[in-house]
Amino acid sequence: MNAPEGADLPNDVIPIRPGEEIDSARLANALAGRVPGSDLPLRIEQFGGGHANLTYLLRFGAGAGEIQYVLRRPPLGPVAPGSHDMVREYRALSVLWKGFPLAPRAHYLCEDPLVIGAPFFVMERREGVVVRGGIPPRFGGGQDRVANRKLSEVVVDVLADFHAVDPRPLGLDAMGRPEGFLERQVKGWAGRFERAKTGDDPIADEVARWLERELPASPSPTPLHNDWRLDNMAVSPDDPGRCVAVFDWDMFTIGDPLADLGTVLAVWADPGEAATGPTPMPTQCPGFLSRAAAAERYGERSGRDLSTLPFYLVFGTFKMAVVLQQIYFRFARGQTQDGRFASLGDAAQKLFAIAASRRP
Q1: Rounded to two decimals, what is the model's pTM?
Q2: What is the per-residue pLDDT across 56-81, written as a single tens digit (0 to 9) for each?
Q3: CA 307, 311, 317: angle at the middle one, nearest 5?
Q4: pLDDT digit string (tens) for 110-127?
């Protein structure tokens, strides 16, 4: 779960954090002739949001002639197998834009870790407003019921539209194995948790066993994002109901569409419920769709049967907890010095408890 690239908010771009610097001369040399504008002087800044993949703003030139791109690379230190996959994200984004225009276009992939310390890719910059834990003043600061409802609807509607994309003409159908997808996912996330443990957590262990026991049959496969949420989207500065980009595609695959729905509903807290995640969606603002209404809207727009949705809600909550535990594991091992991660171990435990409470 990562920083949305291309957010058009002043505090999104920060001076590069210590330990996360990029050698601009080496990068400029690697990109020379490979992306338009790469013959111009290069300046690098960092997008400050997110908790995993590192995302940078590349500025070639200056003034009216400046050309901007976004660079994505995995987090520092060892990463879980199959996660933070820059090659996979590049493969998806190099063609997905043709069938789903809200996906930014990827231009260049570098698999040589000697250039910046890890594989990376460079993509177009999409400018828009990324809404994280709070709704910004331009959309009423959380008090505009109409704006809040638009934000909630756009999350659901764009997800249903994405699930309607046919991956075959794009050559993306080979990027997944739909048969047995959900079973592999459950076992895979349980395994990630085992490898990221920093202590005993009986509740998490119990939820993992429940998921393996209660596995439902999956609907027909579709393209999957695997981390669908409001802060992985950008909306128009003039209209919170118009999405201009969807970000963070390193887990793109083909599989069970209800896994995506469960992921976003896992962070969709109703009024009076505990907020979920380190940057929870502002779903408790007046006018925002309830979790049940959001699910109903998706069902109507997609035509899918949602009778097994409670399983996916538990699974989505469990996955989110595992992600936080993985980040905290890297912090506890000293693989990252980002002080924001110090509290994520406790946050993961709370999410495992919420997952347990959401079992039907």
Answers
A1: 0.89
A2: 999 999 999 999 999 999 987 655 55
A3: 135
A4: 999 999 999 999 999 999
Return the HEC string of the chain: CCCCCCECCHHHEECCCCCCCCCHHHHHHHHCCCCCCCCCCEEEEEECCCCCCEEEEEEECCHHHCEEEEEEECCCCCCCCCCCCHHHHHHHHCCHHHCCCCCCCEEEEECCCCCCCCCEEEEECCCEECCCCCCCHHHCCCCCHHHHHHHHHHHHHHHHHHHCCCCCCCCCHHHCCCCCHHHHHHHHHHHHHHHCCCCCCHHHHHHHHHHHHCCCCCCCCEEECCCCCHHHEEEECCEEEEEEEECCCCCCEEECHHHHHHHHHHCCCCCCCCCCCCCCCCCCCCCCCCHHHHHHHHHHHHCCCCCCHHHHHHHHHHHHHHHHHHHHHHHHCCCCCCHHHHHHHHHHHHHHHHHHHCCC
Cβ–Cβ < 8 Å for 241, 154: yes
pLDDT of residue 2: 38
Distance CA 246, CA 234 (A): 6
State pLDDT tens for residues 290-320.
Answer: 999 999 999 999 999 999 999 999 999 999 9
Statement: residue 340 has pLDDT above 80 = no
Give residue-wise pLDDT tens across range 162-189: 999 999 999 999 999 999 999 999 999 9
Reading the block at residue 279, the tokens are 């940057």
Which domains, and CATH codes, for the chain? 10-124 (3.30.200.20), 137-357 (3.90.1200.10)
pLDDT at 341: 78
Nearest to 73 by CA among 58, 62, 63: 58
Query: For the chain, what is the mean pLDDT?
Result: 91
Burial class (CB in 10 A: 0-12, 13-18, 19+), 83: middle
